[in-house]
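S.,

As promised, the S-adenosylmethionine run. Input:
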Amino acid sequence: MLRVLGVTIPGLEDFLCEEIRELIGATPAKVAPGKIEFLASPEDVILMNYMSRTATRFLVVLFRGIIDPMNLENIKKAALEVDWPTLFHYESLFAVRAERTGNHEFTSVEVAATIGEAIVERFLADTGNRIRANLRRPDVLVRAYVTGNLLIIGLDTSGESLHRRGYRIFNHRTSLNPIIAYSLVKLSKWLDTLRKDPEVPLIDPMCGGGTIPIEAVLATQKVPPGKWRRYYPVEHIHLFSGVRQEEVMSWADSFILRDLNPCVVCMDISPKSIAGAKLNADSAGVKMKFLLGDASKLGEYFNRIGAVVTDPPFELRMGRNRRLSEVFRGMSESLQERLELRFSAISAGPALPKLMNAMRVLKLVYNRRILYGGVEARLLAYERRNTKQESCEG
Ligand SMILES: C[S@@+](CC[C@H](N)C(=O)[O-])C[C@H]1O[C@@H](n2cnc3c(N)ncnc32)[C@H](O)[C@@H]1O
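Predicted complex:
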């Protein structure tokens, strides 16, 4: 078994833990913000790379421990302890990338260079051969994370970040990370309800390029998010010799249910967004309904309001939207009247208090802070208030 590090957006660790449990039955533990660790076979690592909707990458852990954060020498000592020559061949080209969070007297570039030196020294000492680095096109990518006084060194198994799904051909100017889109869908309870009620709709009334509705349909159909890449850079890592990536992926493909077409609605006030969402949905091979409309009049468009999952403007990059409070209020009125499941949304910036204020008519059931592209954002979920019960409790 390998010690594996799963990396995700800080704040979404429990979504990734649950997914790992469901996919391979492992019991992960959180080891740092956005990082969980668990045991898995090499085949399972490929499977998770192919199937995970909530991870950005997976690493084989080579070192995890507490270091003196002021001293690069300790990082070198930790890296020298790793038995590098048993992990890959000296003719493989390698690179080290490091990320650092906290106060240190060194930079992440220095961390990477120090670990690189240790790898070269260890190969020379053990095999008499000099391994070469290639920072642009390495065969083996070593990653290091320094978080306060915690050092993690691992072998990357994912390559390009797994949130880059590959179906997106129209890039909305504020497109949402698909990991968050899927997490919001999970939060809405729609996926669980579909089994009992296949007609229950999921509506994204501010869908932009359609990331949330597309992730919702792909999850229902069990289409692996790695469908558009089908390769993970592990062939130079000895631990993976004998693993047939194609076979693992074909096995995962055998569960795809492309004929399942749930009721998913992609709505936006902008014709350009709707046109772009159509392009993305076609590229992902999913069917859904498209509607040009105003979210403030949500109730006027639909017979049923099942789950509403959305990513409204944050008013950060695109500036103020004068109608936003009114739009949120209009939405919340329809939701309080007719919402069947949950309303889940991401918000940040000046839009966040406006959204929370308007949604006060509903019951807040989830409020999680996440770090999204350097911005502190919130994942929120609301349900209708049970007015009778609440007035009794008075
Ligand atoms: C942050 S973007 C959504 C991005 C989308 N999640 C994606 O991944 O591409 C917000 C969207 O809300 C839409 N919008 C703003 N006001 C609206 C309104 N009153 N009704 C419907 N859509 C609205 C904008 O046109 C924009 O496409």
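The radius of gyration is 23 Å. The chain is about 35% helix and 25% strand.

- D.
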